């Protein structure tokens, strides 16, 4: 990052501190901590350490989720010719963001990031810059309002051409399963045939994972619901799911020599017919 970017980011963070509660842990900042980032606070570090004390595999899951994002975006941009990505629930920037991967494969890719956390958005605007051939935009919007997301994304993306809708580890923040399914359907509805859903979420497949998540939820942070793998498969209802199906993260088209340790999260990519 250049000196000018550092100054812009520092000034923006200072302005935002009045709106950020640093007494309650935040999932995006904890995820950043697990991935080795620096955009987190002591409360996030303590919560992250408490979580890993009960369920150490969460760090492997965090890394596996970034690896899946990379493989999926490379496949869509490089092999399927997708040039538009709607990434809902951006999280704090780390290495290997959606726009970086997509524009490495296809510099003219257009990416719209969506989040409603002020710290996430200020980092996004400072760090998630686009290649000149493409474009990167940021929308401050809530996952629970898919109509607003779609309307505002349409200002930057061509909904007459395929769009990759990315929901990476965020549907757990929607406690009611029927509501989560409705959100996915309503986000997909205005997208044209040939669009794709790229999704992963944590699964209720390990007792320690459930215990660690319950402890986190009791801190007062926004809770996260772990779902059965079959419930994650339901998000792809009506779509043509690409091989190898809805599977654990490490099993989705793994790179040769890649880390294949099992983690408690399922993922998939589905094509809208």
Automatic annotation (TrEMBL):
<keyword id="KW-0489">Methyltransferase</keyword>
<protein>
    <submittedName>
        <fullName>SAM-dependent methyltransferase</fullName>
    </submittedName>
</protein>
<dbReference type="GO" id="GO:0032259">
    <property type="term" value="P:methylation"/>
</dbReference>
<dbReference type="InterPro" id="IPR029063">
    <property type="entry name" value="SAM-dependent_MTases_sf"/>
</dbReference>
<dbReference type="Pfam" id="PF04672">
    <property type="entry name" value="Methyltransf_19"/>
</dbReference>
<dbReference type="InterPro" id="IPR006764">
    <property type="entry name" value="SAM_dep_MeTrfase_SAV2177_type"/>
</dbReference>
<dbReference type="GO" id="GO:0008168">
    <property type="term" value="F:methyltransferase activity"/>
</dbReference>
<keyword id="KW-0808">Transferase</keyword>
């Amino acid at each position: 990052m250049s000196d000018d970017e550092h100054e812009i980011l520092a000034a923006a963070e200072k302005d935002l501190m009045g709106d950020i509660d640093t007494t309650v842990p935040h999932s995006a900042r904890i995820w950043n901590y697990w991935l080795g980032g620096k955009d987190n606070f002591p409360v996030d570090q303590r919560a992250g350490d408490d979580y890993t004390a009960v369920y150490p595999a969460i760090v492997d899951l965090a890394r596996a989720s970034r690896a899946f994002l990379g493989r999926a975006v490379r496949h869509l941009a490089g092999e399927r010719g997708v040039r538009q990505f709607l990434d809902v629930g951006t999280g704090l920037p780390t290495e290997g963001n959606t726009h970086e991967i997509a524009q490495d494969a296809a510099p003219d890719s257009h990416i719209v990031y969506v989040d409603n956390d002020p710290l996430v958005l200020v980092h996004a605007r400072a760090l998630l810059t686009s290649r000149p051939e493409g474009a990167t935009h940021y929308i401050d919007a809530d996952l629970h309002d898919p109509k607003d997301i779609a309307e505002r994304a349409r200002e930057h993306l061509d909904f007459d051409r395929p769009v990759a809708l990315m929901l990476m580890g965020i549907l757990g923040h929607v406690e009611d399963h029927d509501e989560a399914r409705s959100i996915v359907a309503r986000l997909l509805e205005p997208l044209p045939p040939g669009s794709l859903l790229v999704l992963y979420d944590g699964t209720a497949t390990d007792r320690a994972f459930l215990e660690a998540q319950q402890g986190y939820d009791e801190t007062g942070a926004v809770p996260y619901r772990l779902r059965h793998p079959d419930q994650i498969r339901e998000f792809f209802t009506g779509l043509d799911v690409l091989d190898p199906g809805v599977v654990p993260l490490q099993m989705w088209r793994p790179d040769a020599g890649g880390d294949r340790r099992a983690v408690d999260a399922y993922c998939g990519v589905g094509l809208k017919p």
